[in-house]
Design brief:
Barwin-like endoglucanases; six-stranded mixed β-barrel; 4 helices; alpha/beta; 6 strands; elongated
Amino acid sequence: MLALLAVPGCGMLAKTGAPTPVPVAVQPVAVPDLGTGQSAAALDTSTPAEKAAALAPAAAAERSLGQVVVGLGSPAEQGFWLKSTRVTAAAKGRVVTGGGASVNVDLLPGTGAALLSLAAFRALGLGLTDLPAVTVYAN
């Protein structure tokens, strides 16, 4: 009985075939000129004295606040700083990468993901798109 129902369907399949493609006109899209932008070096306005202070040896008495993954903070906010939910009050401190590079920073309370300043990213030799894990220390 099923074989008889399938026979009329075969005739319809044989007659239909593949649809004929319809040509479509492609309109070019104008891409806005985004310019060349600014380099990280141009945005980082830290002075040599500020950089030297940020790279100075660590304070003797410091306590670990733990490890956080940091993203690049706003380049408009100059200086050496870290914003994190691990920080409850503004203080001085230091961040250390897994490779041992460290920089002294102002620790600031934050919300959401931890953010590290452009100057600190550059001083640590991090790529601007990196999301490194750093250990945070408070003085």
